[in-house]
Amino acid sequence: MIFILLGSCFLIPYEIAFPNDNDGHRDMVKMVFDKIFDFLFFVDVIITFFCAYLTDEYEIIDNRKDIALHYLKGWCTLDILSCIPYGDIGEALLTKKQMVKLQLVKLIKLLRILKLVKE
């Protein structure tokens, strides 16, 4: 997961700095990596609902309900926001001029980096 996070550190700023110049179509390599990263982060969201965690007192919590509630109260919203394919949604619904503004929304995906601090 750390390698995927590091890949995102380079891919997302690159996409923002060098927007699509082929009439809104992305370079195939960028698109493939973007899809893979989004998919793997979505899988991570699902897996996290089932992973036990340690409390501050080093007690292992393995009750699924407690795990889900803990995740929903913490990182779940951020993780889900970082999985949304903003570029694809924007290309389908917005004009090219509006897409330029949407590029900055992709910075939300960089919040995935906070997961490194979490672990």
Report on this model:
With 119 residues, the protein is mainly alpha-helical. The chain has one domain. The chain has helices at residues 2-17, 28-48, 64-73, 76-83, 86-93, 96-105, 114-118, and strands at residues 53-54, 60-61. It has a two-stranded antiparallel sheet with strand order 1-2. The model has no long low-confidence stretch (mean pLDDT 79).
Number of E strands: 2
Instruction: Kindly report the average pLDDT value.
Output: 79
Task: Output the number of helix runs.
Answer: 7
Shape: elongated
Low-confidence stretches: none
> What structural class is derived from the secondary structure elements?
mainly alpha
What's the end-to-end separation, in Å?
11 Å
Strand proportion, as a percent range, falls in: under 5%
- Oligomerization: single chain
* Rg measurement, Å: 17 Å
Query: How are the strands of the biggest sheet laid out side by side?
Result: 1-2
Order of helices and strands: HHEEHHHHH
Largest sheet: 2 strands, antiparallel
Helicity range: 55-70%
Query: What is the number of domains?
Result: 1
How would you summarize what this structure contains?
With 119 residues, this protein is mainly α. It contains 7 helices and 2 strands; from the N terminus they run ααββααααα. The chain has one domain.
Strand-helix topology:
Blueprint: H1 2-17, H2 28-48, E1 53-54, E2 60-61, H3 64-73, H4 76-83, H5 86-93, H6 96-105, H7 114-118
Antiparallel strand pairs: 1-2
Key attributes of the depicted protein:
119 residues
